[in-house]
């Protein structure tokens, strides 16, 4: 039986040339020319992103800590798990602990890395490191000057209902809610 994940050479693209076409404070846009497996040349444009963490904070009673935050590109308030950008050279777990404390005021005694996801593979190199946080203790939040959000709690069932009804559409939170079902039922 052939391993489905070996022998990828026939699928690979090779960078010929490239340039940074935009550099902002947070994101960069890269434009590269690549050689395709058939020898033709194509252009690839993508967003360079420093990576981020997502935290699934679970209270002792299995309620979940969530946030409501306005997201400018889509001009609406979203229900989300706490999350944030990984700073250059920062360990993802340290980032997750910092983001939970800054955004919600909570600290946690038990941290578990679940997985890494790539949420926009067609146009970004962003990766999200997903963590579960338990043993939560409340404290003061310390939001960035330009950050406005509110926190609230919900049950896993409420979250599933909100995903099904389209009230939660943020990909990291949708994926996290599916993880949550497995975690709370001891399937993972």
From TrEMBL:
Entry GO MF terms: hydrolase activity
TM regions (residue ranges): none
Domain annotation Nudix hydrolase: ranges: 47-176
Cofactors demanded by this protein: Mg(2+)
Cited SUPFAM superfamilies: Nudix
Reaction it catalyzes: GDP-alpha-D-mannose + H2O = alpha-D-mannose 1-phosphate + GMP + 2 H(+)
Gene3D superfamilies: Nucleoside Triphosphate Pyrophosphohydrolase (3.90.79.10)
Keywords: Hydrolase
Alphabetical list of PROSITE patterns matching this protein: NUDIX, NUDIX_BOX
Pfam family, one: NUDIX
Family, as annotated: Belongs to the Nudix hydrolase family. NudK subfamily.
Name of this chain's protein: GDP-mannose pyrophosphatase
């Amino acid at each position: 039986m052939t391993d489905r994940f070996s022998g990828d050479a026939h699928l690979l693209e090779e960078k010929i040339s490239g340039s940074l076409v935009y550099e902002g404070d947070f994101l960069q846009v890269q434009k590269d020319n690549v050689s395709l497996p058939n020898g033709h040349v194509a252009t690839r444009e993508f967003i360079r992103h420093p990576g981020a963490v997502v935290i699934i904070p679970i209270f002792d009673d299995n309620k979940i800590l969530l946030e409501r935050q306005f997201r400018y590109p889509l001009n609406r308030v979203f229900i989300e798990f706490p999350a944030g950008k990984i700073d250059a050279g920062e360990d993802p777990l340290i980032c997750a602990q910092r983001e939970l404390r800054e955004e919600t005021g909570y600290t946690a005694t038990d941290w578990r890395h679940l997985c890494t996801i790539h949420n926009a593979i067609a146009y970004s190199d962003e990766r999200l490191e997903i963590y579960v946080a338990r043993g939560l203790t409340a404290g003061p939040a310390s939001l960035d000057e330009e950050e406005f959000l509110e926190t609230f709690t919900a049950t896993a069932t409420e979250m599933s209902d909100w995903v099904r009804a389209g009230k939660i559409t943020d990909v990291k939170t949708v994926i996290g809610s599916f993880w949550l079902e497995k975690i709370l039922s001891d399937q993972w």
